[in-house]
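Researcher: Batch entry, complex prediction.
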Amino acid sequence: MNTLITNIKHLVNVREEHTLLRGKALAELPIIEKAFLYIKDGRIDSFGKMDDLEITNNEQGILNDESRNVIDAAGATILPTYCDSHTHLVFAASRESEFVDKLKGLTYAEIAAKGGGILNSANKLQQTIENDLYNLAAERLKKLIKLGSGAIEIKSGYGLTVEAEIKMLRVIKRLKETFPIPIKSTFLGAHAFPIEYKEKKQDYIDLIINEMLPAIEKEQLADYIDAFCEEGFFTVEQTEQVCLAGIEKGLKVKIHANQLHVSGGVELGVKLNALSVDHLEAMDINSIQSLANSNTIGTLLPTAAFFLRMQYQPARQLIDAGCAIALASDFNPGSSPSGNMNFVNALSCIQMKMLPEEVINASTLNGAYAMEVENDLGSITKGKLANLIFTKPIPSLSYMPYSFGENLIDKVMINGEFYE
Ligand code: NIG
Ligand code: FE
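Model: C-alpha cells for the complex:
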C-alpha cells in the first residue's frame, strides 16, 4: 500500500545524501516546514513542501495513484525513528530489589550476596527456558517500538556458559525473524568472569574462543563481538584476545569501554577498527584524541551514568574534538532499566549540554551508523524505510527534550504502517 502523508508541521532530518556526523555537522538538522511525505511499498519515495505537492504530483502522479491512502498528519512533527545501537534487552528478571538495597546503603558485595549484579542475572537466565526469555524480551521490544525505536541492537552476556549464551543469541535471532524492525545481534560472552573461573580466567577466555565462537559461527548467531573492558572485568589484553577471535569469525567489534576508569579500551577499539566504543564516562585527552582521529563511533549511554549516579560522558569535549558520537539506551536490568530513547535525548541535553538538534542526529543517523543500518534508516531520505515517529502537537522540536518525562509520541510507523 502507498501512503501520502500531508500537513506535517516539521519533517525532521531530511537528507538527500548522508554521512556520519561529527563536530559542527552534528548540530545541523535539516527540516522541512509544512511538508508532505509519500511512501511507496514501505519506503520513502518523495517529500517536499505542501506548497509543492502539486508540482511533485505532476511529475510522479502521487494524487492520481488509486491504491494510495492519505493520512492527514494534522500538524504533527515527523522524525525518523531512533536507532538504539546498544541494549541488553534479553534478560530473565528485573533487579529492583538491588536498586532499593543500594538506596539503603548496602555495599556491592552485600548486594551480590543477596542476588544482584551481572552474575546473578546470569544465574537467573541460565534457569529460564528459551521460550520464556523470548516472551519477556518481545514484550519489552513492543513497548520500545511504541516509544519510537525503529531499529535495535541486542547483546548476549547474561548467559556466561556455552549453552546459555547460545540460548540468548537464539532468542535474539527469533526476535529478528518475528519483529518488523532491523535488529543486530552482539555476542558479549566477555561480560563478566563466572565465579568458577575466578582463579583461572584464561580458561574462560579459551571457552569463549574455542567453544562459544565456533557454535555461534555455525548457527550464524551474531553480527558483532563485544567485551566489558574494565578493572575487575576484562583487561585490555583479554579484551583484545576475545575481539581478535571474533574478527577471525567475521564479526565487527564493539567494546564496553571507559565506563568506570580510563582503561585503554577506547584506544584498543580504535586499533581494532571497532564499529563503536560504548559508555565513555571516564575519558582523558589521549582517549578523546584517539577517538577523534578514527572511524570508530563513540556511543554515549547517559542513562547508565544517571542511574548509577556517575559522572556523565564529556559530550561537548568529544563533539568539539571531532569525535563521531551516537546516543543509545544501554537498556539492561542493572545499570539502565529503561530503553526510552526520548529520555536518553532529554538527559543528553539537560546533563551533557548537547543541543536538541545534536541529540536527534546522534540517536537517529549516527545511531544507524553505529549498527550499520544507515542505508535503510536514520534519516528521511528517498529509498529508506518509512519508520517514522509522529509526535503529539508540539510548539517546536526543542520541546521534546525540554518537556522531559512527558510522552510526546503519538504514533509510530514501521515500514509504512502504524505499529499497534
Ligand atoms: O552496559 N557495563 C556493563 N554491563 C552493563 C550492565 C550490566 C549489569 O549490571 O547487568 C552496562 O552498563
Ligand atoms: Fe551495556
